[in-house]
Each structure stands twice: as structure tokens, then as C-alpha cells.
Write a structure and sequence with these properties.
Strand content: 5-15%
Distance between the termini: 85 Å
Largest sheet: 2 strands, antiparallel
Helix content: 55-70%
Length: 146
Amino acid sequence: MGLITDLLKDIPLSAVLREKLASAEQNYAALDTENAILKDDKRDLQVRVVELERQVDDLNQELEKLTHVDDDLEEIEIELLRALSNPNVRQAEEMVGMVGSNLTRVEYHLRRLVEAKYIFSGSTSTVTYYGLKQKGREVLIKRKMI
């Protein structure tokens, strides 16, 4: 018997009231069981959501790799990558004559290449230098430029 029934067993109650009380206790027990089941289901679903979010992230990264092509690079940017394949060329000023453009335009495109992770940049107190990253080398190799 339930807790409430145990407390009221010595108190005289009508049969109808006892039946309603027993029914209420059964409903309470059923709701308690259902609540426990729903909590388990919620915990399982939360774990599944985390797994699905990870899968979505992985698929988004794969999609990014598959849809990203170097065709979004401008010709001057390809030429800058080619210039950087020369180990003696590291500064924007050195690349100006190699790509036939002015310093402002060269620096703009170098910044775009850095942001797109084709090249890296570093600096000392007086100069900024650039170098190819693997992604930049890959573009040149695919185009048979190195």
C-alpha cells in the first residue's frame, strides 16, 4: 500500500473514499514511473544531440574542403604565391616588380592571402615578411607552377 493509505488505515473511511484514494495512489505511482522514463529519454536525447552536433560540424568542415577551390584567387594573388615560392623573396616591396603592380595593391592582396591561410606573415620592428603555407604550395603544385 501507499504512504497515504498507510497513514489513513486506522481512520474509518467509506469504501468509495478508500477506492478513490487507492486509485489516486496508483495514478501517482504511474506518473512517477512515467517521469523517470521521460528523464531517461531526455538524457539519451541530450547525448544524441551532442553526437549529431559533432557530426554536423564534421560534415560542414568536409563541405568547406570540398567546395573551396582556389578559383576565387585573382591572377595577381597566384603570381604573389609564385613569387613567394622563391626563397629569396619575403617582402612586399620585392614582389612589386615581379607581379607588375604597385605596393598598395600588392599589400592588399598579400593580406587577402594571409586571411585565406595561403600564406603567413611575420614582422620585425622594421619589416613585414611573408611565406608560403601548405595551402599556398598546393595551389602552385596543382597549377604546375612549382
